[in-house]
Write a structure and sequence with these properties.
The complex is a heterodimer of chains A (299) and B (129). In chain A, 35% of the residues lie in helices and 30% in strands. By secondary structure, chain A is α/β, with parallel strands linked by helices. Chain A has two domains: 212 residues, Rossmann fold (3-Layer(aba) Sandwich), CATH 3.40.50.300; 73 residues, Alpha-Beta Plaits (2-Layer Sandwich). In chain A, the strands form three sheets. Chain A has a six-stranded mixed sheet, sandwiched between helices. In chain A, strands 2-1-4-5 form a four-stranded antiparallel sheet, covered by helices on one side. In chain A, strands 12-13-11-14 form a four-stranded antiparallel sheet, sandwiched between helices. In chain A, a hairpin with a 2-residue loop joins β1 and β2. In chain A, α4 packs antiparallel against α5. The termini of chain A are far apart. Helix content of chain B is 62%, strand content 6%. In chain B, α1 packs across α3 and α2 crosses α3. Chain B is elongated and about 55 Å long. The two termini of chain B are 34 Å apart. The chains are: A alpha/beta (299), B mainly alpha (129). At the A-B interface, α6 and α8 of A face α1, α2 and α3 of B.
Chain lengths: 299, 129
Amino acid sequence: MIEMRNVRKSFAGVEALNNVNLTIQKGSIYGLIGSNGAGKTTLMKLLSGIYRQEEGQITIEGKPVFENISLKDKVFYISDYPYFFPHYTTKQMAQFYKDIYKNWSDDRFFKLTNVFGLELNKRIQSLSKGWQRLVAFILALSSMPEILILDEPLDGLDPVMRKKVKNVLIQDVAEREMTIFISSHNLREIEDICDHVGILHKGAIIIEKELDELKADTHKIQVAYKEKVPEALMKKMNILHTEKRGSVFLLIVRGEEDIVAKQVRETHPVIFDLLPLTLEEIFIYEMGDIGYAIKNIMV
Amino acid sequence: MFELDLRSRKPIYEQLVDKLKELIINEILKSDEQLPSVRTLAQQFTINPNTIQKAYRELEMQGFIYSIKGKGNFVNPSSKKADLEKVEKVKKELEKLILEALYLGISTSELMDLIRYVDDTKRGGGKDD
C-alpha cells in the first residue's frame, strides 16, 4: 500500500503541493488526473523518491521512500520525457538498469523486445518519440517493479502499440499484483484501465474514489415536459448543473440511479433519458463546482 | 464469448455483470461450468483485472456463481434467483413500453385486449403442437 499523508512541497517559495492525502492499494491501477499545473508531476516525483517533501509522510508498505534503496528497487518511474544517456543503445541501457534493479529479468527483456520488434543495437536517441517511449516501457517492465509510476505514459504511441503496451501492463497487474500509478490528460485512457481515480487541483487532492462508484452516483439526465418543469422535482434532486437546450433540459444530478429515475418518472416527462457520465464529464463538472469552469472562449 | 463496449457510458464492471448474467440465465454457461479466469479475461479485453474481480464478486453475491479457492469461479446450479432477476428485468422493460404506449394515446383497455390476445395465441399455439 502507498500512502501520502499531509504532504507539502514547494519550490523557491512557490507552493506546488499543499496537504496531499492519498492511498493506493496494492495491485490497483490508480489514475491521477488534474488541471494543468496542478502538481501531478511533483506528486509522482515525490512518490518515486526523487524529491523530498517539506512536511508530511510518504510511505510504501509503511516505510518512507526518500533515499530508501531497498524500496526504490521495487519502484520504477517513467517520466513524461523519458531520459536516456546520450549515444546509448537499448542494449547498453538495459545493462545499466540490470546493474541497478535486483529483480531485472533478461528473459523478460528479450521476450518484450522480440514481441515489439525492437532493434537492440540502435542508438535510442536516433529513434522516434514513440519508439523511445516503448524502450522506456520495456526497460521498466524488465526490471519487474512492484510499483510502476507513469507520467503521461501513452503519448506518442500509435493505437496498436498502445493496446499492446496496455496488455502487457495488465498482465503484470493480474499475475504479479503490480501496482500502477498513472497520470494522464487523456481521460478515456484512464477510464479504460483504472479502478481508482484521484483528482488533483491546485496542489490538493479534491476527490479520491473508486471509478465505478464515482460513475454510479452522478448521472446526466435529459428531460422535457409538455408544460412547465415541475419545481418540486428540481428541489428534491441534488442538481450539479442545469442547461436548457430549447425545451429540453439537461441536468447533472447526484444520487442513486433508481431513486433519481423514479423521481423523474413520477412527474411524467415527455422525454426522459438517464445516462451515466463519462470521466471527462465528471472531471469538468467537479472542477466547475470549485470554480474551474469552462466558459466558451471567444477571441 | 462476448463483447464489451469500451466506448459505452455504462461502466465496464456493470457491462460484465450483465453479460455474464445473460449467459448464465440463457444457459450458455451451464451449471457448474467454470468461468474464464480473471487473468484470461483481463488479457482478452485489455481491462483492469480488479474490475473483473469485482464483477465476479458481485455475481457471487447475487448467487449466480460460486467460487472455490485456488480453482476459480463456477456457475451456480440453483438458478431460481436467475429467473427472478429476469422477471424483474422484463417487468421493467414492459413498464417503459407501456408508459410509451400510454403517451402515444393507446388506451388501457386496448392494452388489456392486447395482453388477452397474446395470452390466447400462446395457449392456442400450445394446443396445435
